[in-house]
């Protein structure tokens, strides 16, 4: 599918961590997954437990962002923070018999028919979390760009950033944050 490019708001890292603090349970783990893997929403929503390679500390992400639209996967390293969060979620997930890592667990009128199923979209999820954290609104793709900005400001070559983002052609631009940052945990 062709991509329609639009300018995107890239949140400051501090705003991401405020949103992270406003989230709970599965949602915190999902946010860390987006940040540490620089993943696209569909890649995270499709993630299954069989894609988590605990022994080699890596995660397989599937994408269709290729010329022919066929699914392809890439193995990405899983750092200790993400590994710990995913292990916690594996042990505490309320629905044990589903292969997907992230499932709809809300029991509202809107989500009633989707309870226990993998997400297709999370409409309004980031808007609500950003409002709760009192930060400007940003979405999952903004987190992907934040990941690229963090790497860029940490001095990584564009080729490395391109590999992390799983781009097949060099990125045209990255909006950067003002200071050098590394991934890290905020309390």
Short précis:
With 187 residues, the chain is mainly alpha-helical. It has helices at residues 13-22, 25-37, 41-46, 80-92, 125-133, 140-153, 158-165; strands at residues 52-53, 58-63, 72-77.
Largest sheet: 3 strands, antiparallel
- Give the helix/strand class: mainly alpha
CATH second-level architecture? Orthogonal Bundle
Q: Classify the beta-strand content into a percent band.
A: 5-15%
Within CATH, the superfamily carries the name: Intergrase catalytic core
Rounded to an integer in angstroms, the radius of gyration calculated over CA atoms is: 16 Å
CATH domain class: Mainly Alpha
Mean pLDDT: 86
Please give the number of β-strands: 3
Read across the widest sheet, the strand sequence of neighbours is 1-2-3
In whole angstroms, the N-to-C terminal distance is 40 Å
Q: What name does the CATH topology carry?
A: hpI Integrase, Chain A
- Give the helix level as a range of percent: 25-40%
Number of helices: 7
- Poorly predicted runs are 173-187
Number of domains: 1
Question: What's the SSE pattern?
Answer: HHHEEEHHHH
Features:
hpI Integrase, Chain A, 7 helices, 3-stranded antiparallel β-sheet, 7% strand, disordered C terminus, 3 strands, 187 residues
How would you describe what is shown here?
Strands 1-2-3 form a 3-stranded antiparallel β-sheet. Strand 2 (58-63) and strand 3 form a beta hairpin. Helix 1 packs across helix 5. The longest helix is centred in the C-terminal third of the chain and has 14 residues, at 140-153. The N and C termini lie far apart (40 Å). The chain has helices spanning 13-22, 25-37, 41-46, 80-92, 125-133, 140-153, 158-165, and strands at residues 52-53, 58-63, 72-77. 26% of the residues are buried. The model is unreliable at 173-187 (pLDDT under 50). By secondary structure, the chain is mainly α. It has a single domain, classed as hpI Integrase, Chain A, CATH 1.10.443.10.
